[in-house]
Design brief:
The chain is mainly β and about 500 residues long. Helices cover about 5% and strands about 40% of the residues. The structure holds CU-O-CU linkage and copper (II) ion.
């Protein structure tokens, strides 16, 4: 890898299956078939971008905060505008972006349990968009999916309003062409605080992402079939929109970090050498008791609330890294990369309050009224017009499509259930390919993976389905009625079929 030019090296040869699929695709005429595919050269190895090694970013990197315009302490009323802007991911280079209120990530929205949140949203983008409140239990017509409402047109406005019921770390992003809109920079965080929160020395919200840029800071064009299959991975890792920003710690402090993975496809397997991370919460808020981890896997869409106990001596410098992780198609061949620089101050150690032994209680869900199975697959399919608007006149054109039980969204059977019912879902991936599975509108508890009972009881809305494994979860439809989506959170997979529809009736 040449760090100056950002030109990626070839990754190790892709698996036989990957190369085979790519040949099949390249052998057919597809130039007209797919607007998102720029070209299909005859190369049969995908070049997975290597991550650039950059010097630490020394500026401020905390998220901007939204200003609450409403004096009523139980109403949070804010303005969010989506617009085209420019950001500086690489020093001295401008990168075109789409952003909320002009910053990537968008601003942090903070509320407390029970608050009413009102968001006056203006779409100043050239394209239609929506805001989806990922993980937040909101009424169906506020969820930002397009089953029940039309997208907000270019130049249009929409007021989102809902009451926040659960404490936790959530995020917001578009639900129209998410693969391209989120990649361009449209994402932000929503933190809902409980009436009582553990006392810690300090806290911050960190949104992780990656972008794929050339040496001038311009986004690399959307790639070929393998990029569609793997999902877009970049060559620059970002924490709150900055490459390798500096996390200042003081020996002895307990620093709470609310982590959100906003990347289209990258899995972050985070580790801070010589330190343990203490997990306080997952997608849907606190777990019952703090749990020590050596490393943390955070898949696209997922959140983790962790405490770093600053155990190293004053003046130590090291990096939070993301370790290699194989999620299919030789993604694990990439070496570890730096995410955050950690710099200890020279000051003497500080004393920190102990973590509470109990954070919350989570009841086991009652027995399910029914069980459903979902098989996630990646398969070559003949293109027919209608899939996501990619029309094709050639019936012989083969495209990678992503299916749930063999169906390509939106041509899927709608599954129905009643409000309050509990179901058991068995979710599987038929190849050695992982998929982050997300359900809108409701939280679930993981019961087991490959028959092994889940060690932690937790509220989740996004969970990794490991390749060739079966995960069982219990979901209770205790939110709002209406139609809801469930899908893979590798955004290229969701946009190309791996999505389903759920209808909850009273
Ligand atoms: Cu964050 Cu439908 O997704
Ligand atoms: Cu997927």
């Amino acid at each position: 890898m040449n760090a100056q030019t950002g030109v990626p090296m070839k990754s190790k040869p892709t698996s036989f299956r990957s190369r085979f699929l790519l040949r099949v695709v390249c052998a057919t005429a597809l130039s007209a078939a797919l607007a998102t595919v720029t070209s299909c050269s005859m190369k049969d190895e995908y070049t997975l971008p290597q991550v650039l090694d950059v010097p630490p970013y020394t500026g401020a990197w905390d998220m901007q905060k939204l200003t609450d315009k409403n004096p009523d302490p139980s109403i949070v009323e804010v303005d969010i505008e989506a617009r085209v802007t420019e950001v500086a991911y690489l020093p001295g280079k401008k990168t075109p972006a789409w952003a909320y209120n002009g910053s990537v990530p968008g601003p942090l929205l903070e509320a407390k349990v029970g608050d009413k949140v009102v968001v006056h949203f203006k779409n100043s983008l050239p394209d239609p968009t929506t805001i989806h409140w990922h993980g937040v239990r909101v009424p169906n017509n506020m969820d930002g999916h397009t089953l029940m409402m039309n997208p907000v047109p270019a130049g249009g406005s929409f007021d989102y309003s809902f009451q926040v019921q659960d404490a936790g770390t959530f995020w917001y992003h578009p639900h129209v062409r998410s693969d391209s809109q989120v990649e361009k920079g449209l994402y932000g965080a929503l933190v809902v605080r409980a009436a009582s929160e553990p006392m810690l020395t300090s806290e911050r919200v960190v949104m992780l992402d990656d972008v794929y840029l050339d040496a001038n800071g311009m986004p690399m064009p959307v790639g070929d079939m393998m990029e569609l299959m793997i999902g877009r991975q970049g060559n620059l890792l970002l924490a709150n929109g900055k490459a390798r920003p500096i996390l200042n710690l003081r020996t002895g402090e307990r620093h709470r970090v609310r982590l959100i993975n906003a990347a289209n496809a990258r899995y972050f397997r985070l580790s801070l050498p010589g330190h343990k991370l203490t997990l306080l919460g997952t997608d849907g808020g606190f777990i019952e008791t703090p749990r020590e981890l050596d490393e943390l896997l955070l898949v696209p869409g997922e959140r983790a609330d962790v405490v770093i106990s600053a155990a190293a001596s004053p003046s130590t410098a090291l990096d939070v890294v993301t370790l290699p992780y194989e999620r299919g198609h030789d993604t694990g061949a990439l070496p570890q990369a730096n995410v955050l620089r950690v710099q200890y101050s020279a000051e003497a150690a500080v004393m920190s309050p102990m973590l509470p032994a109990t954070l919350t209680t989570i009841a086991t869900l009652p027995a399910p009224v029914r069980t459903r199975s979902f098989m996630l697959s990646e398969q070559m399919m003949p293109m027919t017009s209608g899939h996501n608007g990619h029309g094709s006149s050639s019936a012989s054109t083969m495209m990678p499509m992503f299916t749930i039980n063999g169906q390509v969204y939106p041509n899927v059977p709608i599954i129905s259930a009643k409000l309050g019912e509990v179901e058991q879902w068995e979710v599987m991936s038929d190849e050695a390919i992982d998929h982050p599975f997300h359900i809108h509108g409701f939280s679930f508890q993981v019961l087991s993976r490959e028959g092994v009972p889940e060690p932690i009881r937790a509220w989740k809305d996004t969970v990794n389905i490991k390749g060739k494994e079966t995960l069982k979860l219990a979901v209770r439809f205790d939110g709002f009625v209406g139609k809801w989506l469930y899908h893979c959170h590798i955004l290229e997979h969701a946009e190309n079929g791996m999505m389903g529809e759920l209808d909850i009736s009273p």
